[in-house]
Amino acid sequence: MLTRENAGEAAGWNTSDAIRRYVDDLTRLLAALDTEAIVKFADILFSAYQEGRTVFFAGNGGSAATASHFACDMAKTVTGYSKGKRLRAVSLADSVPLLTAWGNDSAYDDVFAEQLRNLARPGDCLVAISCSGKSKNVVRAVELARAMGLTTVGLLGFDGGTLKPMVDLPIVIESDNYQRVEDVHSIIMHIVTDRLIEAVNREGAAT
Predict the structure, then answer these.
(1) What is the CA radius of gyration of the chain?
(2) CB-based contact 128:138 (threshold 8 Å)
(3) What residues does each domain of the chain span?
(4) Burial of 102 (0-12, 13-18, 19+ CB in 10 A)
(5) Are 44 and 122 in contact (CB under 8 A)?
């Protein structure tokens, strides 16, 4: 009789071994994190907060979800209860009408860049999230961001792809497994969120 307990064996794989391999690989990737780059990333975001700059996030698929989550954490978790300055954070992956309008009427490659063209100002920041580092609409957004004078950060995977040499600060998770890369990107997001909460609280205590 097939039960929940023996379903994995019936499918031809050992559930416990598969879980352990996943956890071990994720642990290896976390141990290899470039902590100095993550500190620089947090510093860029904190400077944006202090100077009233806007931070934009862009990504496709799972990375679109990360972009939305990151913008939420920046706008709400970090400074949402502040009576003073707030961190201006926008996910370019969130507006279905704009995404479909630009995708249908122009090209899907334009869906992020054309939103930036409306909203971005010199000194703002774009966080480009792409596991492959090759997403054409993210690449185009970075091209425009650089031309407009934005600081660019890449949360990337694989070998960094096209975006690695394009952004001011690349953070590359060297894995060709999308799930692992997305996991680590999410952990970086929460590390940076924690660091910013501490920095904002210290600033508030000093005033």
Answers:
(1) 19
(2) yes
(3) 1-31, 34-206
(4) buried
(5) no
Closest CA to 200 of 91, 57, 38, 80: 80
CATH assignment of 34-206? Answer: 3.40.50.10490
pLDDT in tens, 155-168: 999 999 999 999 99
On whether the CB atoms of residues 59 and 129 are closer than 8 A, the answer is yes
- Polymer length in residues for the chain: 207
Partners of residue 171 on adjacent β-strands: 155
Predicted TM-score of the model (pTM): 0.92
Amino acid identity at 17: D
Q: How far apart are CA 17 and CA 131, in angstroms?
A: 26
Judge contact between 169 and 154, C-beta under 8 A: yes
Chain segment 65-121, per-residue pLDDT in tens: 999 999 999 999 998 777 778 999 999 999 999 999 999 999 999 999 999 999 999
Within 10 Å of residue 60's Cβ, how many Cβ atoms?
20
SS3 assignment, position 150: coil
